[in-house]
Prior knowledge:
The chain is of the alpha/beta class. It has helices at 12-23, 34-38, 40-43, 64-74, 88-93, 95-116, 150-169, 191-203, 224-234, 253-263, 292-298, 306-321, and strands at 3-7, 27-32, 54-58, 78-81, 121-127, 173-178, 181-182, 210-212, 218-219, 222-223, 242-245, 251-252, 272-274.
Amino acid sequence: xxxxxxxxxxxxxxxxxSRLLIDKGYEVHGxxxxxxxxxxxxxxxxxxxxxxxxxLHSGSLESYASLFDVVEKIKPDECYHLxxxxxxxxxxxxxxxxxxxxxxxxxxxxxxxKNRAPKCKFYFAGSSEMFGQVREIPQKETTPFHPRSPYxxxxxxxxxxxxxxxxxxxxxTCNGILFNHESPMRGYEFVTRxxxxxxxxxxxxxxxxxxxxxxxxxxxxxxxxDYCEAMHLMLQQDKPDDYVVATGETYTVKEFVDAAFRxxxxxxxxxxxxxxxxxxxxxxHELKGDASKAKKxxxxxxxxxFEGLVKMMVDEDIxxxx
Length: 322
Ligand code: F7E
């Protein structure tokens, strides 16, 4: 039985990936902070359906010793390093902790694997935020990076560390360059879930308005469940490599808002207010990915389209609140 170790297992992608790996017969292990183990009701809610099928270990991305111990104890065959401070907006407020946790966390994991499980295949959760002020449209693996936030900068450093461990030490390390991926398990701070949960509240008479920032930003939005399949496929190849994972379609935040309200039979212009507070000091205006390499080599393509994603999220939020 193959053993997989997931950092960031309590997040959206951790939840989808652990289900996928359990279904494939893996023994799944996750690193979680001690506070999460002490407060499972609030912090482990996404893992509730698989709690009896996974093994959780206390550890922190800020502690090399804790990660080293987990790697030493489990000796995983595959490691999916998803853990990070992943909210771009917050990275402007606390740039020091975002940069140190995200970069050191990746470095610690790579080093622990090199020292204690050098045959382990490693996946790093790179991000389209690395492209930032984009140099070309669509963005592919060869597009130069120009990050626009402390979060984006930390992901570029993680990407380079991951590539360097491959080139310098011969480790099997892959970078996924994942564009925005959403689901009913998305955190409420991200714009898609903020919108769909507000639509549900407005529909049910619990809220009256939704305050948002820049409605003109364009994103390439896919379904998180599809993107976790791509992560797994990267580690099943003969050679390690880096891959863009995206739908190739781009929509503005306004188009997402319109589709979500429309699906609930509402007109967004009656409820949405612009609030300067949600604007970013430097914005990423347009992201659109070219995932043709993932399609060709991994045989991967997304199954859920934009309309399907919006409906899935709105329906689930209405169901949950009803
Ligand atoms: O913002 C605009 C905002 O926070 C999307 C993370 O998973 O994907 C995600 O990063 C857009 C931005 O995601 C609000 O200015 C308008 O242009 O949902 P978001 P993100 O920053 O694109 C990448 C690939 C990652 O790697 C990240 O970890 O929406 N926007 N009004 C707003 N955004 C938020 N959050 N809240 C608003 O009220």
